[in-house]
Amino acid sequence: MKAFLICLLVCLALVAATDAISCRTEPERCKEGECCVEFGIFGRCRPVLKEGEQCELRSITSKFNDHVYLMKCPCGAGLTCEEDDSGSAIQGKCVQK
After folding, report:
1. Which residues pair with 45 in a beta bridge?
2. C-alpha closest to that of 35 among 74, 80, 93
3. Tens digits of residue pLDDT in 10-46
4. Cβ atoms within 10 Å of 8's Cβ, excluding its own
5. Residue 67 DSSP symbol
6. What was the pLDDT predicted at 29?
7. How many other C-beta atoms lie within 10 A of the C-beta of residue 21?
8. In Å, what is the CA distance from 93 to each residue of 3, 9, 32?
9. Which positions make up the signal peptide (predicted)?
């Protein structure tokens, strides 16, 4: 039983890795309203940020794939990341343009 669970976990990890890496090399894998976010050697399609959500004042993209974000997706269409009252020089909030 233990061997079966280990094998299952390895298989699931391989499937997740294959899907995750694909958005790094194939930007079209992410749907409209999503972006590819890198997590270590993997990348995952994640939803773009909505109004009021915390965002990065300066989105950082991968050196090799400019469509791959390193921390989180940018604000969605019609939104921009602006400083909020937290005083952070790194994070702000998504607001209407």
Report:
1. 36
2. 74
3. 655 555 555 545 798 888 899 999 999 987 778 899 9
4. 10
5. T
6. 92
7. 15
8. 47, 37, 21
9. 1-20
Sheet holding 68-69, edge to edge: 42-47, 34-39, 68-69
Is residue 58 packed enough to be buried (19+ CB in 10 Å), middle (13-18) or exposed (0-12)? Answer: exposed
Assign residue 33 a region: left if phi > 0, alpha if psi is -120 to 50, beta otherwise? left
Two tokens, residue 87? 């005083």
Q: Return the pLDDT at 10.
A: 61
Contact 84, 92 (CB under 8 A): yes
pLDDT for the residue numbered 89: 83
Q: When comparing pLDDT for 38 and 50, which is higher?
A: 50
